[in-house]
Specification:
The strands form 4 sheets. The protein has an 8-stranded mixed beta sheet. Strands 11-12-10-13 form a 4-stranded antiparallel beta sheet, with helices on one face. A 3-stranded antiparallel beta sheet has the order 7-8-14, with no helix packed on it. The chain has 8 helices and 17 strands. It is globular and about 55 Å long. The two termini are 21 Å apart. By secondary structure, the chain is an alpha/beta fold. The protein has helices at 25-33, 45-57, 72-86, 100-109, 146-154, 188-198, 238-246, 292-295, and strands at 2-3, 6-8, 20-22, 65-68, 94-97, 122-127, 131-132, 138-139, 156-164, 179-183, 205-208, 225-230, 251-254, 256-257, 263-267, 271-278, 281-288. β16 and β17 form a beta hairpin. The chain binds ribulose-5-phosphate (5RP). Ribulose-5-phosphate binds at residues 69-74, 127-130, 140-146, 149. Belongs to the ribose 5-phosphate isomerase family.
Length: 296
């Protein structure tokens, strides 16, 4: 088992960690006030997201074209890339954002950006996920950016998925939370009914995603709507499900990302697990937090 070095701090803009850095007020307080209490660090879910994100950014090298994911986990990766650019530790990075939110974040941090028209092949994309199954198939899009994410990730030589351990499921749909489908606004209710009836055997229900509390439909970056599908039971063959959905007129894209991820970084309370696809196999590596108390 490999061992990760950690440095715990409140601010990632002023302190350079050995490998990873965990932002946690509990941890920072413990580190600053009482060295003896270093072992009692509590990692929040956001700390775990940051750990996974920072670990993934170790794979970003100068000169790369990098896909920038969307969501609270991917945001940490974008922050980290910007930090390393500012420090001069990364150079000549071109970012390809997967949403207008990430575009705005990257612009505000000074990351040079481009798009798929100018850079049709991306070296590496780092993005979060809502669900990850044992074969690295994903559900994405609860943040609403599934179409651009899928376009960018399917154009990437490497796609590293970064999650905290709560995202791991036995099968797609297993969290019982939404599997999003982007649809054109025209007669969205008709599309909803057709989608639900495709998966009647799996106890599927669906609803139009709404924007906040205003009751209006949520509109994606592409001007479309999202139908969230919920499954009571396993939907089985994912490729078949994907083909069936995409054959419906009015459907733009769905949030199942099948076979796109090339590796996965999962941060849990005990440590990090990295799974990398090597041919048809998955290589698994584990990093424990045992020496966290020695990292201060
Ligand atoms: O697919 C996504 C956005 O469309 C996100 O990657 C996914 O929703 C995970 O988000 P978070 O990191 O905030 O949990």
């Amino acid at each position: 088992m490999a061992v990760a070095q950690f440095f715990v701090s409140d601010s990632h803009t002023t302190v350079e960690p050995p490998q990873l850095m965990v932002s946690s007020s509990v941890a920072a307080a413990a580190a600053a006030a009482a060295p003896a209490s270093r072992s009692s660090v509590t990692l929040t879910q956001d700390d775990l997201k940051k750990i996974a994100a920072y670990k993934a950014v170790e794979h970003v090298k100068s000169g790369m074209v990098v896909g920038l994911g969307t969501g609270s986990t991917a945001k940490h990766a974008v922050d980290r890339i910007a930090y390393l650019l500012q420090q001069g530790k990364l150079k000549d990075i071109v970012g390809i954002p997967t949403s207008s939110i990430t575009h705005n974040q990257a612009v505000s941090l000074g990351i040079p950006l481009s798009d798929l028209d100018s850079h049709p092949v991306i070296d590496l994309t780092i993005d979060g996920a809502d669900e990850v199954d044992p074969n690295l198939n994903l559900v994405k899009g609860r943040g609403g950016s599934l179409l651009r994410e899928k376009m960018v990730e399917s154009a990437s030589k490497k796609f590293i998925v970064i999650v905290d351990e709560s995202k791991m499921v036995k099968h797609i749909g297993g969290s019982k939370l939404a599997m999003p489908v982007e649809v054109i606004p025209f007669c969205w209710n008709h599309s909803l009914n057709r989608l639900v009836s495709l998966f009647a055997d799996s106890g599927c229900v669906g609803e139009l995603r709404k924007s906040g509390n205003c009751g209006k439909a949520y509109v994606t970056d592409n001007g479309n709507y999202i139908i969230d599908l919920y499954f009571e039971r396993d939907i089985g063959d994912l490729n078949k499900a994907s083909d069936t959905i995409l054959r419906l007129p009015g459907i733009v894209e769905h949030g199942m990302f099948i076979g796109l991820a090339t590796s996965l970084i999962v941060a849990g309370v005990e440590g990090i697990t990295v799974k990398t696809k090597v041919g048809d196999d998955l290589e698994v590596d584990s990093f424990c937090y045992n020496d966290l108390r020695n990292g201060f």
